[in-house]
Amino acid sequence: MSDRPRFDDLPFLDGLDIRHAWDVWGREDTLGTVNLLTAARVAAAAQLVRTGEVVSLDLPLDLPDPPLFGRQPYRHEIFRLNRNEMDDRLDNFHPQASTQWDALSHVRAREHGFYGGRTQDPVDGPIGLGIDHYAEHGMAGRGVLCDIAGYFEVEGRAYDPFEPQMLTVEDVQGALEAAGVVISEGDILCLRTGWVGAYRQLDAAGRRAYADDVRFAGLRGDEDMARFLWDSGIAALCADNPAVEAVPGDPAVGSLHRRVLPSLGLALGEMFEFEALARAASGDGRYAFLFVAAPLKIPGGLGSPGNAVAIR
Predict the structure, then answer these.
(1) Among 23, 101, 194, 306, which residue's Cβ finds the most Cβ atoms within 10 Å?
(2) pLDDT at site 2
(3) What angle do the packed helices 148-155 and 275-284 form, to 10 degrees?
(4) CA 255/CA 16 separation, integer angstroms
(5) Residue range 253-262, pLDDT digits in tens
């Protein structure tokens, strides 16, 4: 049994209707829920590998194209080192423009600061929450696919991943129940909203238009969702959409990022590629797998490409 406090026993941030877990692992902690990815849990997750099938969970680095949220495309140059050797380099590279991890220094909780109550702005220097801490620890454990899009299709529910539908706790629980999986502490929850599949179907003109009016389904940003995510004991939450939660959101509901990233220290990943994984899971009914990711070790970095695979 876990000795973590229940969500409803966590204290509130003063003046905000948001609970925080800054004292669960200590105010100097740099990992948040990644602390739950213990060696024993990694070893147990390795027992899920049956065939050795490896499924990439990353989009190509040049998707979405054009990049979303005002980011710019990177420049890739190939050049000669000498007569016999070639090299290449990236310029203007946004580590969070494609499949990505958010560092705990990515979003703050207003005046209360970042995870652990760090109030210094990362623009002014490292605050000890860089993505390099995730990279040093490693991101490996039991992955669980929650195929919301597939569940809705089977249920015959009208659904468009490009519309800002807010997915509820009941939706997530329904999809997990339909898949026959139960979340255990330390799991990496992989949420398929269908966004990647829908985006890949857009032509170049459609992608340019979409970048000017970004809208998509995602998790509801309310306290019920934060409670569910914390009490379920997941170590990380990865979604195939660009922000985990629905965009545009509703200020009356609140920001899920603010509720879970700086407040609970929950590791978040976005724009993960779950289409092939969903096809494999629906084919053999295995929705749990060994999840392995190696974020880039960027000192003080605010994010990293996902670099993730599912091993079945």
Answers:
(1) 101
(2) 72
(3) 60
(4) 12
(5) 999 999 999 9
